Amino acid sequence: MGSAKNTGTAARKARIEEMRRAEQSRERxxxxxKIAASAVVVAGLVVGGVAVVHAQSGKKDSSASDxxxxxxxxxxxxxxxxxxxxxxxxxxHVTSTVxxxxxxxxxxxxxxxxxxxxxxxxxxxxxxxxxxHALEHGAVWVTYNKKASAAxxxxxxxxxxxxxxxxxxxxxxxxxxIMLSAWGHQRTxxxxxxxxxxxxxxKFVQGSQTPExxxxxxxxxxx
Length: 223
Description:
The protein is 42% helix and 17% strand. The protein has 223 residues and is α/β, with parallel strands linked by helices. It has 2 domains: 1-59; 63-204, no CATH class. It has a 7-stranded mixed sheet with strand order 1-2-7-6-4-5-3. It is globular, with a radius of gyration of 19 Å. Mean pLDDT is 83; it is low at 32-67. Pfam families: DUF3105.
């Protein structure tokens, strides 16, 4: 049993490392394309700027409308302690604030820029809209409030820093001291040593729930 589990863990790590290398290669190609296209874009903006302004006048802010239809449904508790969202989770990119029906959010419309999630630990609260985009990329988000012990926060930070496709930040308004979130899934854990922490990471870091597997967890927002 132990040998099989170790083999599975090694294979999972190898797959994540392969995704990271592919991501870096994709970022290099994207930078080249952006540089080549920038002159054309600027020229187009100059020529079409006035027309765009007139076209936009009188229209409602679509991002505000999208944010209201971000998610609907409810959590269903599993026997393993993981709550699964049953309903819809929007994936529209919006620039407005989104009113999520759950906190921390596990999906829904979100900011076009993802929060860096390559083992990033944030000392301050982050914006939900950017963190949700990271979940869309297959990240696990560890959050905690002021009731969490300093020892647990330190231990969880150590785990996150060593795990690609994960991030951590304080979340004062959440109902429990420590919570783990992935796209469409969430659970509470008692402490950093709770076996459920490793189980959640094993299942949901780049797990089958990921809407965009292998998408970037770097090159986004770094608070």
